[in-house]
Design goal:
By secondary structure, the protein is mainly alpha-helical. The protein has 4 domains: 159 residues, Rossmann fold, CATH 3.40.50.620; 102 residues, Glutamyl-tRNA Synthetase, Domain 3 (Glutamyl-tRNA Synthetase, domain 3, Alpha-Beta Complex), CATH 3.90.800; 47 residues, Helicase, Ruva Protein, domain 3, CATH 1.10.8.70; 87 residues, Arc Repressor Mutant, subunit A (Orthogonal Bundle). It is built from 19 helices and 9 strands. The strands form 4 sheets. The chain has a 3-stranded antiparallel beta sheet. α1 links the parallel β1 and β2. α1 packs across α10 and α15 packs across α17. The protein starts with a strand and ends with a helix. The structure holds one RNA strand of 75 nucleotides. Keywords: Aminoacyl-tRNA synthetase, ATP-binding, Cytoplasm, Ligase, Nucleotide-binding, Protein biosynthesis.
RNA sequence: GGCCCCAUCGACUAGCGGUUAGGUCACCGCCCUUUCAAGGCGGCGGCGGGGGUUCGAAUCCCCCUGGGGUCACCA
């Protein structure tokens, strides 16, 4: 049985890195017929952001990364919110105290700051407090933390499944705080206790955790538990190669959703970060990803998150992966958001069909096809110029269009081509001004298609408007 | 700075001792064409450096360089 987990902290917007790591945890669990757990690591009361948890869970579901156990779906190892498991951590910290693997430390934050400045880090001075004295001070309610008593001298072996074994000199491993003075556990304690209690077998997390893994290995040893397998995924990067951050990249999953990126495309793109299909295919479903997934195909160089390629892929999904009906459906919230409405499902579907090769995100659809949904659309400078140049031709054309009975694409094309030939001009010389008159733009789907979709009435009234 | 990880086109990557070093995005050109796209075709562009090992290294080893991470009562 393989059990994996994603352990997000509700400290802000749902993070793209969380989705990235969740994707691999999800795939590995599914691949092995195992379970995938979501656990909320809300042990920092100062950084807690209300609503963040809900948004993170919603984002995971949006991406199709459903979980078997979690704070909102329950499970046999709950609760799945660390703030609701406080007694567990306290008990385990005390167990460590009993076993001689931890000690109480009474320094204030200010003192620690001072010690850090002088010694470069905590020097373990509280190790010297006799246990009886420490217990007595704790009983009297003196504020303190519980720290890990790293055995020194000694070494600790850490095995990362993707990189092999690294031996750490325990001298390099700090006596980290396990239980804070407010009674909350730190990540180190909580993650080990919970992973063990929840039966997590494979810890798949970001590389930033690699160097703190010896602490965790020591904790498993201290408790006498079997350690899970560790896999550290490369960090997503900003264009300048530093760890992806809010300041330099878009990290909020809500942003991607609001911008009109498809969950399928984002998920697919994330699957390309550090992983590649054996046949080089870049467009693949979640199922195909799970099917093909193997650690041997994971590369360790930190991948730069390329928004341009994501955009390309999103467009690819829009025009080649999703059905026309599906795209029409997904575009609706963005149309509404833009204050636009559509006269019928058929009209919308046709509009989407014509625009399909011309927009890469859902949000771009109402922006680029506004003239198909309202009379209140902008007119570009280029369009104004084309219009001016073609005004005489358009004046002559108007009555012909007015007289046109069959308003089909083929019939309109015949009319326009005939008109151009008759005037001895290229089709474009007529088409461009007319396009400008009907759409306010020089970048639109085919003119005949536009004409037909708008319908005779609207087409003529727009033309009349610019002619007057 | 100490420790740890990593290293193929600008970006994502294939490669796992013998390849004209392949694909994708971006960029450039051509084709298609009523515009813009999309699409098709073509092009530009890479094994960081130095030592080894080997008949033979992008592939294995070492050093250097470079990049990243981490050194909190944050995760």
């Amino acid at each position: 049985m393989v059990v994996t987990r994603i352990a997000p902290s509700p400290t802000g917007d749902p993070h793209v890195g969380t989705a990235y790591i969740a994707l691999f945890n999800y795939a590995w669990a599914r691949k092995n017929g195992g379970r995938f757990i979501v656990r909320i690591e809300d042990t920092d009361r100062t950084r807690y952001v209300p609503g963040a948890e809900e948004r993170i869970l919603a984002a995971l579901r949006w991406l199709g990364l459903t979980y078997d156990e979690g704070p909102d779906v329950g499970g046999p190892h709950g609760p799945y919110r660390q703030s609701e498991r406080l007694p567990l951590y306290k008990g385990h910290a005390e167990e460590l105290l009993k076993r001689g693997w931890a000690y109480r430390a009474f320094e204030t934050p200010e003192e620690l700051e001072q010690i850090r400045k002088e010694k470069g880090g905590y020097d373990g001075r509280a190790r010297n407090i006799p246990p009886e004295e420490a217990e007595e001070r704790a009983r009297r309610g003196e504020p303190h933390v519980i720290r890990l008593k790293v055995p020194r001298p000694g070494t600790t072996e850490v095995k990362d499944e993707l990189r092999g074994v690294v031996v750490y000199d325990n001298q390099e491993i700090p006596d980290v705080v396990l239980l804070k003075s407010d009674g909350y556990p730190t990540y180190h304690l909580a993650n080990v206790v919970d992973d063990h209690l929840m039966g997590v077998t494979d810890v798949i997390r970001a590389e930033e955790w690699l160097v703190s893994t010896p602490i965790h290995v020591l904790l498993y040893r201290a408790f006498g538990w079997e350690a899970p397998r560790f896999y550290h995924m490369p960090l997503l990067r900003n264009p300048d190669k530093t760890k992806i951050s809010k300041r330099k990249s878009h990290t909020s999953l809500d942003w991607y959703k609001a911008e009109g990126f498809l969950p399928e495309a984002l998920r697919n793109y994330l699957g390309l970060m550090g992983f590649s299909m054996p046949d080089g295919r870049e467009i693949f479903t979640l199922e195909e990803f799970i099917q093909a997934f193997t650690w041997e195909r994971v590369s360790l160089g930190g991948p730069v998150f390329d928004l341009e390629k994501l955009r390309w892929m999103n467009g690819k999904y829009l025009r080649e992966v999703l059905s026309l009906e599906e795209v029409a459906e997904r575009v609706k919230p963005f149309l509404r958001e833009a204050g636009l409405s559509w006269e019928s499902e058929a009209y919308l579907r046709r509009a989407v069909e014509l625009m399909r090769p011309r927009f890469d995100t859902l949000k771009e659809f109402p922006e680029k096809a506004r003239y198909l949904f309202t009379e209140d659309y902008p007119v570009s400078e280029k369009a104004k110029r084309a219009l001016e140049e073609g005004l005489p031709l358009l004046r002559e054309l108007y009555p012909r269009l007015e007289a046109q009975e069959e308003w089909s694409e083929a019939a309109l094309e015949a009319l326009l081509r005939g008109f151009a030939a008759e005037k001895g001009v290229k089709l474009g010389q007529v088409a461009q001004p007319l396009r400008a008159a009907l759409t306010g733009s020089l970048e639109t789907p085919g003119l005949f298609e536009i004409l037909a979709l708008l319908g005779k009435g609207r087409a003529l009234s727009r033309l009349a408007r610019v002619l007057s």
